[in-house]
């Protein structure tokens, strides 16, 4: 195996990415999606006050609008990237992201801001779909899970620093500067991709962009038992996470009165997800994706149930140290579940990686964002709706996994994935 990622057939740009730069670039592409969500959290209150939003829960639409634009548009990027390659659609999506962030910064009304947030999600969808497709073009099986775990480890740095960055920006200016900062970061990633990222889709693997071809590609994805069930499982787990993100500012500030310390608490939990992704990358080659992710899902459900029981006692909120410990434990589990479930869903779909990534991303984001919005709008001044969401959705995800594995958990599968280009 080589130490350089390379594509012999396609020479633009004429550069070889070492493994470290490859992982860093893929993580950066995915990170600007997380940035668009997490950096907003400290500014939601000021955005609402500035643009005349009188209902507290309605501020959450800044997050939900982005997620819905992000979810629906993923359906288009996959088939397009399977036909025209990865580079061009990715660069176009990045430019849409940059321009819509600038538009949001200049928005005079809440409705216009939400419109630009939807458009920003449309641009960001390219980064999610195509970044995963690039990894699948290059790696397969446990190697893909290892690389995705390392990508997620770097990617999780954004939730650690983004709220604090947003808080810092708010100290020196208004909420408009948050969007300007997003535009600058996305522009930097765009230039990095333009000059350094080679095309990873080989000409012989391109699929025609016709209605019949797209329909057949979608049929392959939706007809695969493991891919569909693991996608649904991920969707429900994401729904619980999005529900918390929508309510994070209200929980940390409204319930626990952390005020300026809110980004620090948010970062502490996000750091556990990054640690989990790193440990997964070290252990997945030895224990396998199924053993690790199934174990973490069971722990996720058990801790969530304990959290729910404690939150329903009726004697005030769960003490903050206990809340933070339980939430950190749940999100530590999430760090291993996400990378492995996505790899398990993509593993049998190498022939239609772009279409597969778009269908998986669309399903996960649409279901996750819808459930997250419902949980967020159910916020009632306690953590009970969030805890209930984590437990119930974790249990539903377990049912999906049992369907995928025909009732057997922890069973390793070592069959090689088709059409794998080894990059290391």
UniProtKB/TrEMBL annotation:
Belongs to the major facilitator superfamily. Bcr/CmlA family. This is Bcr/CflA family efflux transporter. Pfam families: MFS_1. It is a multi-pass membrane protein. PANTHER family: MAJOR FACILITATOR SUPERFAMILY (PTHR23502), POLYAMINE TRANSPORTER 2-RELATED (PTHR23502:SF132). It is found in: Cell inner membrane; Cell membrane. InterPro entries: Efflux_drug-R_Bcr/CmlA, MFS, MFS_dom, MFS_trans_sf. The chain crosses the membrane at residues 20-41, 61-78, 90-112, 118-135, 147-169, 175-197, 226-249, 261-280, 292-310, 322-341, 353-375, 387-404. It comes from Paramesorhizobium deserti. Residues 22-406 form the Major facilitator superfamily (MFS) profile domain. One of its GO terms (molecular function) is xenobiotic transmembrane transporter activity.
